[in-house]
User: What shape does this take?
Amino acid sequence: MDKKKIKISVGIIGILVVLLIIFAVYDNICEFGGCDNFKSKGSNYCEDHKCIADGCTAKKSPGSNYCYYHVEENAKKYEEEDRLELSDSQIEEIKRAIKEYTDNLMEKQDNILAVNLLGDVPSSAYKTGITFNCNVVRTDSDTNLATIYIVMNSDGSFKVQSLMYDNQ
Assistant: This one.
């Protein structure tokens, strides 16, 4: 081979090596939007964005150190003193927050026709969070069970964190 062919071959190999390095690094970046940290082993998220439960690799739920599953699991472990006794007026305030949240959600996602609560009281109420079970009616004639997660702010007001479909 002459020198020109060697230079071209080395150049092509160099470009391929650089591309492989870029793809290897990119594949190891946390999948949380805007995060540039490396993923934790076996997870799609870095230590800052993955659930802190032993062995769990899921993304943290908003405002928590745990994923949605472990927030619910940990709620079951809390002692009676961690339960919230909600007054009728607090439950009504929570329902207003849910209505505002679901109205906003239906405006943004036109495939959701309705969100119906499955009870008059929360399915769980702890200092760490409050949940309501509901069903979500969609335009595809499908109805899905879901859970609405609510937190009580330090000023005593309530805010919906999220609505998550069950078993999907």
